């Protein structure tokens, strides 16, 4: 099986920016090169180091030469036990029956289980015979104990079984490779090592470049795409390459430039505080696409600001656990009230600033000063401690933020559930304007596309 890495080839670019942050060009046809090694986070919270590196590796848990040397049933624990070379694998009997691959139980055309669960009885599932077939490459089970089951046969390929192994290391590998690869968090010191740069034309025409862009977006949360035509339809073309645009109450594609009488602070030329978009959505858009058509020609002003919200959250978790607990447990009221071309809207959602999953991993960052409601539906004794924790979050956020200026033809792509972004102010005149076209993608579509690309190439 092919082991792939994100490539980091070509010359390093310095963006027109208020800082000097290099961008790594990625060429889809170049040999793979490893990502930078992990750097440990400093124990000194005022100056943490970025953590970068790691790899999303695609490896099979099986080899073409592996064979089943022995198959038995452990009746006490209701498991089928396989010896594969020198390794031992166990599979629950009930799981094997539930996943029979015969035409009666499984529809191959839709890859869907059709086993009749109205008649499925966990307590009556029983293996009558177990055999190794196909020269050790398959397992055959004969079921019984019910009239409808008597003589029912199931055959499972060894490779199929090993890919679904219940060993902890195998399940973890599957989740990292096929469910959601783990993010690689970074701070300001690591930005030059993690930001990748791709050609718009290559991403649109080459599946290898498309896959590498998606992998980099998942790993680092932010990727630059260069060379897009200067028309307002390019975000849609990029989104269509993955799936489709996510529509919100601002429409599908939205124009970001100074507007008089706007109902959104993003359409002002004044500084735009760092934020995540649409925290008032229960299922908020996962990925931002910001296409620069016209950039402010002021020497200073109009710079993008971006920071890894997951990195900031991990700093809090490690150095200020009480603040992390407050920001991850306290429900905040987020809201948006106004009207746009799509009509009037009044959105409300309650969620913490730091959202963590049941496994303790970070899932989502919510932060927007303009969209944080004056309603704060929490016990009064929690209010001031929450504000102090939030102040620390914002302080670290700005310390770890990078600034740079996109150029016409650039599409800045980044995770809206992880990255916190903003913009410095600029002077808007007839001779000095800024014109950005934005759109959103959902992570469900991004992950789906990556799996399709992996299956086609690995």
UniProtKB/TrEMBL annotation:
Keyword annotations of the record: Carnitine biosynthesis, Dioxygenase, Iron, Metal-binding, Oxidoreductase
Residue spans of biased composition, Polar residues class: 1-20, 59-69
Gamma-butyrobetaine hydroxylase-like N-terminal domain segment(s): 85-161
Leader peptide range in chain numbering: none
Molecular function in Gene Ontology: 2-oxoglutarate-dependent dioxygenase activity; metal ion binding
Low complexity: compositionally biased ranges: 27-36
Domain of life of the native organism: Eukaryota
Family: Belongs to the gamma-BBH/TMLD family.
Protein's UniProt name: Uncharacterized protein
Species in which this protein is naturally found: Anopheles stephensi
